[in-house]
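writing this on my phone so excuse typos. first protein, seq and then structure
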Amino acid sequence: MGIIAHGIDLVDFPRIEDMVKRHGDRFLDRVFTASEQQYANSNKNGIEKLAGRFAAKEAVLKLVGTGWRGKIAWTDIEVVNTETGQPEVRLSGEVKKIADKLGITQISVSITHTANFAIASAVALAGKY
């Protein structure tokens, strides 16, 4: 298995909190899947969880080399947790098509938080895993 690309992103909590306050469900539904919203709502630090997932989505868009444009939807990238709590990326729609064209077979993602920021790093892998 080989590394194809890497993406990283940093998000400050007030940015996400402001978007939620200003745009409410319209923002949440446009950017986060129902599962991601449920996960954030089930934690006392919901904004922190949303910021981490937002950073992960941005990191994935960087590693596929597109940014957010064209037919890409934010919800084409879903960040879920495995049974052990590790974040895992699931792709669909246009982002999945792009990843498939690039030969990406797996994306490894890591998310961490500080008092005011979330950072995510995503690595695109190719080959059998």
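second protein below, same order as before
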Amino acid sequence: MSEALVLGTVRQAIETAVVIALPMLVVGLLVGVVISILQTVTSVQDTILSFIPRAAAIFIVFGLTFPWMLRIVTSFARNLFLRLPELVR
């Protein structure tokens, strides 16, 4: 197994992980910024007020994007298994 093949496979795995996590991270960031602005404007500094909406938004996005995420991971795993003889050599 060559070094380039291993690096290519690891790079593809990291790219897949980033693509899958990106929608939830972006929504968490946007909701966090909006809640922080609202807390600053209203002078309410409660940690629960910032945690619950962010967690709910991330959970909703996870529920909506789960079929897409499953297709991406399944495709990556299928390609990895198909390339297994090439990786073993």
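The chain is about 90% helix and 0% strand. thats all i got for now
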